[in-house]
Design brief:
five-stranded mixed beta sheet, 3 helices, two-stranded antiparallel ribbon, 11 strands
């Protein structure tokens, strides 16, 4: 598919579309819970780290061996510099993925192993459906050595970053999925 064809294609509402460097087009649905959870976390990064902190969302980060990722939220070192058009995994202090109904296995299993293997200091899984967060620390070759679970509605979760700053996630303010209702 040509670039012109892609730019003139109308993609379905509610989908996030990624264009890979290898020419792949990845379409993934994004629910209201997913979108509003990312927005809530971005707000907390502004409160915790300031308006100009490097906190990309759904932006590709270079990892070795073509395992590039576009996490839902990343917190980078203040002195992070792009390598070409992207930041390097070496600049990442925290990655957070928001679980969606189609991504649970990937977020809990594959990403935990991948981010740990590449030494990402903190991996935070935010699960609106289980209404809990899982804070992984202590990266290892196969994942993380520590996992702390906290339920939504249990106050603020301060997350010390390797550069001395603290990201505070407000667990009371994370959006909860609305109950499904029948058609009227």
């Amino acid at each position: 598919m040509s670039v012109d064809a892609i730019t003139h294609t109308e993609f379905p509402a509610g989908y996030v579309v990624f264009f890979g460097a290898d020419g792949k087009i990845i379409m993934t649905p994004q629910s209201e819970e997913h979108s509003s959870t990312i927005k809530s976390m971005q707000y907390d990064t502004i409160l915790s780290l300031g308006r100009h902190a490097k906190t990309p969302s759904d932006v590709y980060i270079n990892f070795p061996a073509d395992e590039n990722s576009a996490p839902d939220l990343a917190i980078l070192r203040e002195d992070a510099r792009k390598e070409g058009k992207r930041y390097s995994f070496d600049d990442v202090l925290l990655i957070s993925e928001v679980v969606s109904t189609s991504s649970a296995r990937k977020d809990y299993d594959e990403c935990t192993a991948k981010y740990g293997r590449h030494g990402i200091p903190i991996y935070l899984i935010v699960d609106p459906y289980a209404q809990e967060v899982v804070l992984h620390t202590g990266p290892t070759a196969s994942g993380y050595s520590t996992a702390l679970k906290r339920a939504y509605g249990t106050g603020k979760l301060p997350v010390p970053l390797a550069d001395g700053r603290t990201f505070t996630l407000d667990l009371d303010e994370l959006p909860r999925p609305e109950p499904e209702t029948g058609a009227h």
